[in-house]
Design a protein that fits this description.
This protein has helices at 2-23, 25-43, 46-58, 84-91, 143-152, 163-168, 170-178, 198-216, 232-240, 260-270, 283-298, 306-310, and strands spanning 66-68, 72-74, 79-82, 103-106, 129-136, 158-161, 182-185, 222-223, 244-245, 250-251, 276-279, 302-304. The chain has 319 residues and is α/β, with parallel strands linked by helices. It has two domains: 25-58 and 77-110, no CATH class; 117-310, Glycoside hydrolase/deacetylase (TIM Barrel, Alpha-Beta Barrel), CATH 3.20.20. The protein starts with a helix and ends in a 9-residue tail after the last helix.
Length: 319
């Protein structure tokens, strides 16, 4: 009988000790230390070391947007870095394989829209993309053939439209939009914005946006000052209307009606990563457009809209 009581007492004591140990802070600390040691073991493994070594060599850090003294706003560009933890999980139990590294795109700390409003003349030089910016206040007779060339080459451009022209050519505006091209604001009456009051500038931009929105149900997000003439007040007003002020880094000077050969050479000699190429619907532009596009691609550049060039997203290199 005594033995039975002794066994019972011992059993109860064991249960009490076990229960106490589960709530003992030192036990919790010990378990936490075990987890930390496991993490250290993973991080200190030869595989993890190889992954980190590759990361130190292959990571491409993002580039912040900035304001240049000459070129004004320069957009940022995303980086691409190796996710060490995800790469380890993918390779765990195997040997290191660079092709199995997990990469992720990382945005810059500072984007263009986080800077004070400023004009932009070109994209980030690390982004091998250029845009055709076609300012339209006249020359609609050349647009159908230009659209055919763009479609044949699978290229989307940005058409900056004069508001009064858009009102008279609504079918053409819809055609540009339906073909997948970006539509921008080019003021309403092709004025010299430097000569206008703030109220007049705002009216020029708002009236143009109203016509474009009524035609294609889209609000422009980019604005090109007529003749490239502007002051900082126009930039501020455009920004208040949700539009980035855009100029150019490569000019076709097509309004002087050069030969197609001269126009093509002029562009291809100056084209660069992030270039914004200014052109208009003219006869030499229409005749040289195909050669310009092929030449730009041959030099390793992709063609996109102005907004795509100014976006910080990375582009994949094409063969």
């Amino acid at each position: 009988m005594k033995k039975s009581w002794i066994h019972l007492i011992v059993f109860v004591m064991i249960l009490a000790v076990a229960a106490g140990s589960l709530q003992n802070p030192y036990t919790s600390m010990y378990l936490g230390n075990l987890k930390e040691e496991a993490a250290i073991t993973v991080n200190g493994s030869p595989l993890y070391s190889e992954i980190n070594e590759a990361k130190s060599k292959l990571d491409i850090l993002p580039v912040n947007a900035t304001i240049d003294r000459v070129w004004k706003g320069i957009p940022g560009y995303n980086g691409i870095v190796i996710d060490a933890k995800a790469s380890y999980e993918k390779m765990k139990g195997k040997s290191f394989n660079e092709e199995m590294l997990v990469r992720k795109e990382v945005e810059p700390d500072i984007q263009l829209d986080e800077l004070e409003p400023t004009a932009v003349y070109k994209g980030n030089p690390n982004k091998a993309m250029v845009a055709l910016m076609i300012n339209v206040a006249w020359g609609e007779e050349y647009l159908p053939d230009m659209l055919q060339v763009l479609k044949k080459n699978n290229v989307h451009a940005t058409f900056f439209l004069d508001g009064s022209w858009s009102k008279k050519n609504s079918d053409m505006v819809r055609m540009l939009d339906e073909e997948g091209h970006e539509i921008g604001n080019h003021a309403y009456s092709h004025p010299d914005l430097k000569q206008l009051s703030d109220a007049s500038i705002r009216k020029e931009l708002e009236d143009t946006n109203k016509v474009i929105e009524a035609t294609i149900d889209k609000k422009p997000v980019v604005f090109a000052p007529p003749s490239g003439s502007y002051a900082n007040n126009a930039v501020q007003i455009a920004d208040s209307l949700g539009m980035q002020t855009v100029l150019w880094s490569v000019d076709t000077v097509d309004w002087k009606k050069p030969s197609p050969h001269v126009l093509t050479d002029r562009v291809l000699q100056k084209v660069h990563a992030g270039a914004l190429i200014l052109m208009h619907p003219t006869d030499p532009t229409e005749k040289s457009l195909d050669a310009i596009i092929r030449g730009v691609k041959k030099r390793g550049f992709q063609l996109g809209t102005v907004s795509q060039v100014l976006d910080s997203k990375r582009i994949e290199k094409r063969p």
